[in-house]
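Let's inspect a concrete specimen:
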Amino acid sequence: MGDFNEVLSYFEKKGGRLRSDRQIEEFRGTLDDCELHDLGYTERWFTWERGRFLSTNIRERLDRGVASCDWLDLFPYYQVEHLSHAFSDHCPLLLDTMGKQRVEQVKGRRRFRFEAKWCLDSSFEEVVKNKWNSLSGSVPNKLDKLGQQLYQWDKSRNKEKMTN
């Protein structure tokens, strides 16, 4: 994943000079030669923007995720999201390896959100290591179970604080 500074198609660019057919074909050919597949995206279609005025505005999808067939087999529910940009002219990319599956599984269950405050607890790193090592299964399943266990750990930690 990252900034490839190339587009795969004319519709991935709006405004500015047109990319040459040769340039687009060379990028496509490189991905084909490496047996890499574009992962697609959700949310906004462009990842890079320049120019504040409509007449000079250029938008392009320069950043992307690509993967091999083996990776796609390991993470069939992946989802790439183009996030909003604030400090850069590039959008950050978010790769969720359980994205499409999570939408189905999470119905009726709270979606995992990492709490930065957990890092302030001196036992947090050890808790994560111990819980991770006690889990079995695929990485996505272990991550899901770890998230559930971290919520339980946080709840019990908060109860202890209230009783002390």
Observations:
- Strands lie at 2-3, 13-14, 37-38, 42-43, 48-50, 58-60, 63-64, 66-67, 79-82, 93-96.
